[in-house]
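ARCHIVE CARD
Drawer: 12
Card no.: 0347
Subject: one protein chain, sequence and derived structure
Cross-reference: see card 0346
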Amino acid sequence: MTQAAVDQVRERVDAVYRSDSRRVLATLIRLLGDFDLAEDALQDAFAAALEQWPRDGVPANPRPWLVSTGRFKAIDALRRRARFHASLARLAEQLDDRHEEPASCIDGVEDDRLRLVFTCCHPALSPDAQIALTLRTVCGLTTEEIARAFLTRPATLAQRIVRAKAKIREARIPYELPTRADLPERLEAVLHVIYLVFNEGYSASAGPSVTRADLSAEAIRLGRLLIELLPDPEAIGLLALMLLHESRRAGRTSPAGELVLLADQDRSLWNRNQIAEGVTLVERAISSGRLGPYTLQAALAAVHAGAPTAEATDWSRIVALYDLLAQVEPSPVVEVNRAVAVAMRDGPEAGLALIDALLARGELAEYHLAHAARADLLRRLDRPAEAAAAYRQALDLARQEPERRFIEARLRELDAP
């Protein structure tokens, strides 16, 4: 095989890793029953692919090949270590005897990654551990990326993940979808984690890109599987919300990768099929009579999606929906968004008064978007010195490079004669 052909196969291995490694890992965790053993097996399987595929050719279906190879690599590793740990010999025998059967399912849903999400979100784990373990294991975010997203130290986050894995192992938490009777009480944590995954893809917490399409697509895929499993109104509302946000992806950045605010986006770039599906799902969720936080957020996104311009948006409707959301799920971030909507409805002075009151409470001191919103309102009120000071506060807190460049551009505009 020529060097060019070898390089082409290596590129194919890299592509399969990007597209399928998390699914392979989820299946290996089910088959091996241990996170760390499965993670080592995943790396061994891809190392074997780099060695064998250039020689033997890429399998027609790489994922089963990787799962099978990883499983046997794990069994071989346990056997090699068995001379020092007698218990490992028995474990290797058990794994060798275990048949590779398809994942059991509820109502026809078969997906090891969804199974793994429910395992990571088991009520025996703390909420912080559920989120960290899901983002690390199911979505493949690095420890550093997750730590940045949650404003904590990587070492602290790593320990949280280690403890979560140990808890699953020691408590013998099964790698399975819960029974239908247990699904509702487990749903809230799963919805929360899926939405966090989507948010990291739709608006990355840090780094060179505004978005990570792979994470958003995976969250939407899990959302679809979830409503097949449990067509709960809030699960439907979450899928609607993700689709409506995702519909704007093409308009959120310029061709050069720069951030474009909602008011300035080219709405002809928005995905009308996703908008139509999202609106239908919103209506379906609302028709249940239960207005949970995801359904209300989806209703807000639907109002934006239906407006031909920012100015033509029904801002009174937006404010009313934020009022409901603040009752259902009160949070300072919701109040900031409501203040921005009030500014669009009643003028920047009204919005500024609300944001100043929020910042005075101290809860949003580290939230860069609150400072950026305040800066924008001051800019619209022709108070450039105060606007520049607020933008500098936002810049100090922003971690995403396109956001930082956007704020820097605003500062240059204010400094210009």
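Annotation on reverse: The two ends are 64 Å apart (CA to CA). The mean pLDDT is 86.
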